[in-house]
Amino acid sequence: MFGMDVAHSCASGLNGLRAAGDLVARLQMAKGMRITEAKRYVADKLGVTPRDLSDNQAMHERRGELRLGRVFETESTYYADPSPLEAKWHISELLELPINSVERLKMGLSTGYPVAGRAGRAT
Amino acid sequence: MTQRLPTRMGDGSLTEMTRSEIKAELEEGTQAAVTRGKVPPLAQDELDHLLDIFASAARFTGVDIGDEVVLSKDGSGTPQLGSRVDALYACEQVLAHDTVELFHIDYSYKAVKTIVPFEQQLMKEAQERVTVPVHYGAQPDLGRYSTPDGPCGNWSELLPQMKIDEARAAQEEAVELAVADMVYVAESLWDAGADGLNFDTAGAAGDADFLATLRAVETLRDRHPDMGIMVGMAAEVVLGTHGRLEYRGTRLAGLKPAGQLAVVQQAGATVYGPAVNTNTSKSVAWNTARALSFVKPCMAAAQIPIHMNVGMGVGGMPMYGFAPVDAVSRASRACVDILRLDGL
Questions:
Q1: Which of A20, B192, B312, B334 lies 20 to 30 Å (CA to CA) from residue B113?
Q2: Which of B67, B93, B311 lies nearest to residue A4, judging by beta carbons?
Q3: How far A62 CA lies from chain B's nearest CA (Å)?
Q4: Contacts (Cβ under 8 Å, ≥6 apart) of A35
Q5: Which member of A3, A26, A35 has the closest CB to residue B343?
Q6: Got the DSSP string for B96-111?
Q7: Is residue B292's pLDDT more than 90?
Q8: Does the beta carbon of A119 lie under 8 angstroms from any beta carbon of chain B?
Q9: Could B324 and A117 be called an inter-chain contact, meaning their C-beta atoms sit closer than 8 Å?
Q10: What's the CA gap between B300 and B323, in Å, rounded?
Q11: For chain B, what are the domain ranges?
Q12: What was the ipTM of the complex prediction?
């Protein structure tokens, strides 16, 4: 894992939650957007330039301001930051992109019942 | 005396070559793709750039700031990281993956079908603990449907006996079963909140394996417009174990990356992952040049993101479970710099 995953992350990765790679990845996976278009879309929504998307310092601050979730270290805990589902709710609104887990949470909150699944169907 | 530079072989072993020898490896690698894949060779400026990347004694290299791409990770986690969901969380928080993938060690849709409720429970937990996209991944694994593991005839035994019609019929029967299993598992994990599905090593059992994948993707796209669907291939050429199978008029046997991309796009996937296997007796430089040549024709034709497979034994990477960072970083940078990939 050190040799493969960490090396790729450092050599060419957008670095996920540490920067803004997860946001670009969401547009690629859900919409099939290519990298240049997806970077531009996310940068515009964040109010930054595409190059800033891999700048972990700039993105750490911006994610905190917009409550998009972020990594934490021993020296800097963020107990008031959003939980993952809340962060994804904010990401969904920012990117104007439905996120499956968030949509299911919304449905559950509005109906008071869990969303029906294939196994253990609620209805 | 000409300086000898440290470099790697395709089995991961360290060796030394002169700059001229590395240059020759790169030229031979692209020519190997021309011969095997009927693709154009890399341009001279691309070979020159690859030479700059590989003819270096530096321990590590990387793309320019601003050129980074998405790292979509199959099979996220390792036993040292705790439970499977703990591992996803660690991959997000510590390893900076752009996406993570929940998976079962028996990485096969057929096998996973029997334990789907437990995988759903883990996916629900993962979605509550992880912010980056969490996919579910497994392999189409058509061979599991043949005897003695499955109900269909074993085409690997029938073909050497020259029972061609029987081998083809067995594969056609297996396709129907595999499509049903993949759709069932995919929809189950989607119901549990997954951000997408990964069909990994598609075509590993040949053209029937690939057809099953395409038909599963087509069904899922029709039913779930927002589902992320990634199709990662097994090899640079689809084997014709059946030989006559087509998808929307395209014969699948013999398809190379550009042809694979075309049918994956038609089926409705959102990400395509080409795979080019590594020759362990050749250098990483040779293998990288060959892999890039195979994939390059995809880049202009792609309407969806291309996430090239650059893991163990593919995309120029050594076939070694504990990859050296010097080789990984060179292959990683080379893929992004030369192809302008959308991700890895």
A1: B312
A2: B311
A3: 16
A4: A24, A28, B69, B70, B305, B340, B341, B342, B343
A5: A35
A6: --SBEEE--SS-BHHH
A7: yes
A8: yes
A9: no
A10: 31
A11: 5-339
A12: 0.95
Residue A77 near chain B (CB below 8 Å) = no
| A99 with B322: Cβ contact below 8 A | no
- Is the pLDDT at B338 greater than 80, yes or no? yes
H-assigned helices in chain B: 19-37, 44-54, 84-93, 109-113, 116-129, 155-158, 164-191, 207-223, 257-267, 284-301, 325-339
- Whether residues B98 and A24 touch (CB distance < 8 A) is answered with yes
Reported as a pLDDT band with limits 50, 70 and 90, residue A121 is very low
Q: Are B272 and B318 in contact (CB under 8 A)?
A: no
CATH fit for domain B5-339, picks 3.30.70, 3.20.20, 2.70.50, 1.10.287: 3.20.20
| pLDDT tens figures, B86-110 | 999 999 999 999 999 999 999 999 9
How many whole angstroms from its chain centre is CA B26?
Answer: 22
Q: Write out pLDDT tens, residues B166-199.
A: 999 999 999 999 999 999 999 999 999 999 999 9
Q: What are A24's two structure tokens?
A: 């670009």
Matching residue, tokens 């530079």: B5
Residues contacting residue B333 through CB under 8 Å, at least 6 positions apart: A11, A12, B53, B61, B62, B63
Neighbours of B249 (CB within 10 A): 7
Given the structure tokens 């929940």, which residue do they identify? Answer: B102
Side-chain-facing half-sphere of B119: CA atoms under 13 Å: 30
Residue among B61, B99, B129 minimizing CB distance to A25: B99
- Among B residues 109-168, those touching chain A with beta carbons less than 8 Å apart: 116-117, 120, 127-133, 135
**A45-56 average pLDDT score:** 97
Do β-strands B250-251 and B246-247 pair in parallel, antiparallel, or remain unpaired? antiparallel
Q: Report the gap between the CA of A63 and the closest CA in chain B (Å).
A: 12
Between CA A106 and CA A117, with CA A111 as vertex, the angle to 5 degrees is: 75
The stretch A10-30 carries a mean pLDDT of 96
Residue holding tokens 């020159």?
B48
pLDDT digits (tens, 9 = 90+) for B315-330: 999 999 999 999 999 9
The answer to whether residue B251 scores a pLDDT higher than 80 is: yes
Segment B131-163, tens digit of pLDDT: 999 999 999 999 999 999 999 999 999 999 999
Backbone angles phi, psi at B139, to 5 degrees: -105, 145
Residue B152 φ/ψ, nearest 5 degrees: -90, 160
As given in the structure block, the two tokens for residue A34 are 């290519």
CB B238 within 8 A of CB B254: yes
